[in-house]
C-alpha cells in the first residue's frame, strides 16, 4: 500500500521521483526479492514478520505499475525480472505462495494463494508479454 500514491496517480512527478529513488535503493527496498512491505532501514523490519518486510505479489505489482505511470518502466522491468528470478518456486512447478522473504526469496505464508496467482498473471501480461 506504500506505493498507492504512484499507482493511483496522486503523486507529483517530483514526489514520484523521490519515491522511486528509495524503491531502487538496495539499502531500502531493492532487496534480493524487491519491494517488501518495509524498508531495510525501518527499525521494525523483519523479513519473516507479517507486514514488516515480506514481499506480497499484489503490492509488488502496484509498485511496478506506479513506477510505469511516472516514466520508470525500464526500472520496473528490471525489478520484475529480479522478482521472477529470485522468488522461490515461480519458475518451477509448485504452489504459488502468499508472500516471499525479501532477503532469501523463501516462500512464506499460505500456499496456493489465488491473490498472488492473479497478480503473477497481471505481472506477466503487463511486463513480459510481447505487445
Automatic annotation (TrEMBL):
<protein>
    <submittedName>
        <fullName>Alpha-glucosidase</fullName>
    </submittedName>
</protein>
<dbReference type="InterPro" id="IPR054491">
    <property type="entry name" value="MGH1-like_GH"/>
</dbReference>
<dbReference type="GO" id="GO:0005975">
    <property type="term" value="P:carbohydrate metabolic process"/>
</dbReference>
<dbReference type="InterPro" id="IPR012341">
    <property type="entry name" value="6hp_glycosidase-like_sf"/>
</dbReference>
<dbReference type="Pfam" id="PF22422">
    <property type="entry name" value="MGH1-like_GH"/>
</dbReference>
<dbReference type="InterPro" id="IPR008928">
    <property type="entry name" value="6-hairpin_glycosidase_sf"/>
</dbReference>
<feature type="domain" description="Mannosylglycerate hydrolase MGH1-like glycoside hydrolase">
    <location>
        <begin position="2"/>
        <end position="116"/>
    </location>
</feature>
Amino acid at each position: 500500500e506504500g506505493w498507492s500514491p504512484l499507482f493511483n496517480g496522486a503523486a507529483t512527478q517530483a514526489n514520484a521521483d523521490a519515491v522511486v529513488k528509495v524503491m531502487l535503493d538496495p539499502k531500502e527496498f531493492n532487496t534480493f526479492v524487491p519491494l517488501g512491505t518495509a524498508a531495510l532501514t525501518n527499525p521494525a523490519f523483519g523479513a519473516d514478520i507479517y507486514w514488516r518486510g515480506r514481499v506480497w505479489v499484489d503490492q509488488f505489482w502496484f509498485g511496478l505499475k506506479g513506477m510505469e505511470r511516472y516514466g520508470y518502466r525500464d526500472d520496473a522491468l528490471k525489478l520484475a525480472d529480479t522478482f521472477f528470478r529470485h522468488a522461490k518456486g515461480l519458475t518451477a512447478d509448485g504452489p504459488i505462495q502468499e508472500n516471499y522473504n525479501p532477503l532469501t526469496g523463501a516462500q512464506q505464508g499460505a500456499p496456493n494463494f489465488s491473490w498472488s496467482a492473479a497478480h503473477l498473471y497481471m505481472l506477466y501480461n503487463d511486463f513480459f508479454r510481447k505487445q
